[in-house]
C-alpha cells in the first residue's frame, strides 16, 4: 500500500515525506512515536496562551537559499535576529564576546583594547582565543582568559558534564572573539522564526493526500530485519525506508548504549510583562542551569504575562521520558555507532537520516538540506 516508510516526523522525516509525496507522487507512511509531529522543533501554546518550544528554543538561520526558499513555501517569517547575553557577576554581556562586551568587561581600557584588536586582527574578524593567547601583548592574552573563564569554562562543564581537565584544548582554542559590534548570534543571510510557529509549518508540509501519519507508535514494534529484507508488520517491505530515530535503540542497544546528553526543561509562567533583556540569557559562571529562554521575546508574541524556561543538562540514561539531545562525538562513540551501522548496511532500501540516526549534530538548515538531497536521490 505504501511506497515509502518514514520513521520520525522531525525536519528529517517530514521533508523527505513532503518531497516524495508531492514531487514523485509516492504514497508515504510516517510512523512517529511521540503524540505530535515536528520532532524537537515542535511548539504549542501553554495553558497561559504563550507559544513555547517544548524541546528548547529553536531559531531558524541559514546561508542556503534553497533551504530558505523551500521552507518559505510553508511559512511566512517573523523577522527576528537572535542576540544572546550572558549573566556574569550580575551584568548582562553580549555573547559571543565582541566589541560591545569589551566595553562592559573593561570600561576603562575598552577604547585602547578595541584599537589594538582591530589593528592586529582586522575589523569584523572572528578570532579564536588560541590566537589571542599566542599574542605577546598581555592585554590581548587577558581578553582570552576573560572569555575562557567567564563565558566558556563553566557553561561547557554544565553542558557536557565535564571537568576542566577533560575539556579538549582544541575545542577551547576555537572559542571566538568577534572584532565587531554586531551583537547578532548568527551572521547568516536568512534568519527568523516561522510567523505562526513551527508546528503549523509541519502541518502544512504533511498535509497531502499521499501522506499518512501514525502518531504514538514506536517503529520498533512494527519492523523486523530479516535475511531477505525489512518487514513491516510481518510483510516484506519493498519500498524505501527512511529512519530518523536512534540507531542503537532500534536494536535494543545490544552493543551498548550510544552516549548522549539530555536536557530537563523547567517552565515557569510569570505575571510580569518581561523577565530578562533578551530571549536567551546564558548562565556562564553560576547556577546549575545553562540558560533561560523567555519565549515571547523569541516569537514576538504579544501576550499578558510571560513564560520562561530553565535548561538543565545531564547524562542520557534511556529512562522513560528522557530524550537524547546531543550526541557525544568522539572516536570510541563513533566506533560503537559504526557497529550499529553494520547491522543495516546490507539493506539497500534503508536510509539513515537526521541527528539521531546519523549520531551527529545538525542545525535545522543542515538537516533540511540533507533531506532534500536524499529525497532527490531516491526520486
Ligand atoms: C535544545 C536544542 C536547541 C536547538 N536549537 C536550534 C536552533 O536554534 N536552530 C537550529 O537550526 N537548530 C537547533 N537545534 C537542532 C534541531 O533541533 C535539529 O536540527 C532538528 O531537530 C533535527 O531534526 P531531526 O528530524 O533529525 O530530529 P528530531 O527533531 O529529533 O526528530 C526525530 C523524530 O523521530 C522520532 N522517533 C525516534 N525514534 C522513533 C521510533 N523508534 N519510532 C517512531 N518515531 C521515532 C522522534 O520522536 C522525533 O519526533 C537544536 C537542538 C536542540 C537539542
Secondary structure elements and their pairing?
Blueprint: E1 4-7, H1 11-24, E2 28-31, E3 43-45, E4 51-53, E5 60-62, H2 65-72, E6 77-78, E7 84-88, E8 91-95, H3 99-105, H4 110-121, E9 126-128, H5 129-134, H6 138-160, H7 169-173, E10 176-178, E11 190-194, H8 198-206, E12 211-214, E13 223-226, E14 229-232, E15 235-236, E16 240-243, H9 247-250, E17 260-270, E18 280-282, E19 291-294, H10 295-299, E20 306-315, E21 326-327, H11 331-344, E22 350-352, H12 364-378
Parallel strand pairs: 1-2, 1-16, 2-12, 7-18, 16-22
Antiparallel strand pairs: 3-4, 5-11, 6-11, 7-8, 9-10, 13-14, 14-15, 17-20, 17-21, 18-19, 19-20
Helix pairs in contact: 1-12, 3-4
Protein model, in words:
This protein is α+β, with helices and mostly antiparallel strands. It has two domains: 4-81 and 195-258 and 329-378, Rossmann fold; 85-178, no CATH class. The protein is 32% helix and 24% strand. The strands form six sheets. The chain has a seven-stranded mixed sheet. It has a five-stranded parallel sheet with strand order 12-2-1-16-22, covered by helices on one side. Strands 5-11-6 form a three-stranded antiparallel sheet. Helix 1 (11-24) runs parallel beside helix 12 (364-378) and helix 3 (99-105) packs antiparallel against helix 4. The chain is globular. Flavin-adenine dinucleotide binds next to helix 1 and helix 12.
Amino acid at each position: 500500500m505504501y511506497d515509502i516508510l518514514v520513521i520520525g516526523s522531525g525536519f528529517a522525516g517530514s521533508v523527505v515525506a513532503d518531497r516524495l509525496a508531492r514531487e514523485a507522487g509516492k504514497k508515504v507512511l510516517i510512523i512517529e512515536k511521540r503524540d505530535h509531529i515536528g520532532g524537537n522543533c515542535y511548539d504549542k501554546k501553554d495553558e497561559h496562551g504563550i507559544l513555547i518550544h517544548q524541546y528548547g528554543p529553536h531559531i531558524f538561520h541559514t546561508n542556503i537559499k534553497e533551504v530558505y526558499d523551500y521552507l518559505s513555501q510553508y511559512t511566512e517569517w517573523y523577522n527576528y535576529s537572535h542576540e544572546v547575553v550572558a549573566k556574569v557577576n550580575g551584568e548582562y554581556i553580549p555573547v559571543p564576546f565582541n566589541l560591545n562586551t569589551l566595553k562592559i568587561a573593561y570600561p576603562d581600557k575598552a577604547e585602547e583594547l578595541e584599537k589594538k584588536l582591530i589593528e592586529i586582527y582586522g575589523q569584523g574578524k572572528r578570532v579564536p582565543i588560541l590566537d589571542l593567547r599566542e599574542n605577546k601583548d598581555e592585554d590581548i592574552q587577558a581578553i582570552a582568559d576573560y572569555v575562557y573563564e567567564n563565558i566558556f569554562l563553566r557553561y561547557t562543564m554544565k553542558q557536557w558534564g565535564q571537568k576542566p581537565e577533560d575539556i579538549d584544548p582544541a575545542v577551547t582554542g576555537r572559542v571566538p572573539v568577534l572584532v565587531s559590534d554586531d551583537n547578532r548570534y548568527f551572521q547568516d543571510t536568512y534568519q527568523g522564526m516561522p510567523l505562526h510557529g513551527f508546528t503549523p509549518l509541519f502541518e502544512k508540509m504533511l498535509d497531502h493526500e499521499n501522506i499518512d501519519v501514525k502518531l504514538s507508535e514506536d517503529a520498533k514494534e512494527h519492523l523486523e530485519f530479516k535475511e531477505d529484507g525489512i518487514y513491516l508488520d510481518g510483510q516484506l517491505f519493498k519500498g524505501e525506508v527512511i529512519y530518523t530515530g536512534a540507531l542503537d535503540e532500534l536494536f535494543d542497544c545490544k552493543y551498548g548504549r550510544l552516549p548522549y546528553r539530555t536536557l530537563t526543561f523547567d517552565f515557569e509562567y510569570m505575571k510580569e510583562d518581561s523577565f530578562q533583556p533578551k530571549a536567551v540569557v546564558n548562565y556562564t559562571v553560576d547556577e546549575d542551569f545553562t540558560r533561560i529562554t523567555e519565549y515571547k521575546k523569541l516569537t514576538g508574541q504579544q501576550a499578558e504575562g510571560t513564560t520562561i524556561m530553565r535548561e538543565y543538562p545531564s547524562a542520557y540514561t534511556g529512562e522513560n521520558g528522557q530524550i537524547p539531545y546531543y550526541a557525544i562525538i568522539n572516536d570510541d562513540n563513533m566506533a560503537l555507532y559504526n557497529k550499529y551501522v553494520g547491522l543495516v548496511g546490507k539493506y539497500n532500501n534503508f536510509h539513515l537520516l537526521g541527528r539521531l540516526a546519523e549520531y551527529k549534530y545538525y542545525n535545522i538548515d543542515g538537516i533540511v538540506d540533507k533531506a532534500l538531497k536524499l529525497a532527490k536521490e531516491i526520486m
